[in-house]
Amino acid sequence: MADHVHVRLSQGLSVSETGELIEHSRCRCGATWTKVYEADGGEPEHPTWS
Fold first, then answer.
1. How would you write the pLDDT of the chain (50 residues) with one tens digit per residue?
2. What is the tally of structural domains in the chain?
3. What's the domain of life for this entry (predicted)?
4. How far apart, in Å, do the first and last CA atoms of the chain sit?
5. Is the separation of the CB atoms in 32 and 18 below 8 Å?
6. Which strands make up the sheet holding 9-15, listed edge to edge?
7. How far apart are CA 17 and CA 30, in angstroms?
8. Is position 37 within any domain?
9. What is the pLDDT of residue 49?
10. Is residue 36 part of a domain?
């Protein structure tokens, strides 16, 4: 019997009411994950253009 390896496929991003970035992923087998990146409350990052 072969071992199953989960492959996380991105299902999108969203932002919570409190400003956290939420990443939604799933595997073809039906497993799902949600990862939350907390906002640190600092200033927004400004990209530098070359």
1. 689 999 999 999 999 998 899 999 999 999 999 999 987 766 666 777 76
2. 1
3. Bacteria
4. 53
5. no
6. 9-15, 21-26, 32-37
7. 27
8. yes
9. 75
10. yes
